[in-house]
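re: ur question from yesterday

yeah so i grabbed the chain u mentioned. its 275 aa long if i counted rite. heres the sequnce exactly as i have it in my notes:
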Amino acid sequence: MCFFGTIFFVREQYACLIHRFQKFNRQVKPGLNFKLPFIDTIEYVHDLREQVFEISSQVAVTRDNVALHIDGVLYLKVEDPYKASYGVENLTSAITNLAQTTMRSEIGKLALDKTFEERDKLNERIVSAIDKETKDWGAKCIRYEIKDIEPPSNVQKSMILQAEAERKKRANMIESEGQRQSRINLAEANRNSKILKAEGEAEAIIKKAEASGEALKSISEALKFEGKDRKTFIINYLLGERYIDAYKKMGRKENTMFIQTQPQNPIENVTSSFN
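ran it thru and got these structure tokens back, copy pasting raw so excuse formatting
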């Protein structure tokens, strides 16, 4: 702000309140302005830009009776220069003290753990409480930020131990979950392997049966078997085939067998047994 006798300049984003005979007369706008010497006086000058107020460290007690050292930063903007001049004696001091008392009040509603977890919500509640009180002062609270929350040394040690225990607990849970998932995957893989093996064996049996059926059909057609003779031939063939397979399996055993039948003529033996 520059003065040249009765002429003065007001900077942008500033507001000046003029008194005439010690009584409010007018609010001048930024730019070139005039005043009467010895009659008009500039009593109040306000910066209309967003201002920053440092809230010094203070002690606040949580709901579970833990004393914390907390400081913060308050962002404020003057919206009504008239109220800011005549609604409160010292706007800066009033805002600072209000922020401190509001912060202590809000901290007292929370437990220690919630104080760290809900810092954003705590800031919002402080802003809402301050903004409600400063409406009559012509100022608006833009935001409030908690800078540091410092608990006592013994509480800090307990918090470090608790955090370490929580990390170990999560690590053990992750490891056990990994082992459980690994066992599930192995069991699932084993199950799928057995299913695939069974399906393969069933498919092989079906293919073998189909091949045997085609072979018997071709042989019977080649030998001109019809009707009952054809059915008898097929039955004798299948029984003879199983008879030979049974001899193969018995030959693998480490024991001694006495067989009275003649293995060189299996079809006759089977046919006679069947009849």
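noticed a couple things. The chain is about 55% helix and 25% strand. also The beta strands are 2-4, 7-10, 14-20, 24-28, 31-34, 40-47, 51-61, 67-78, 139-150.
anyway ttyl
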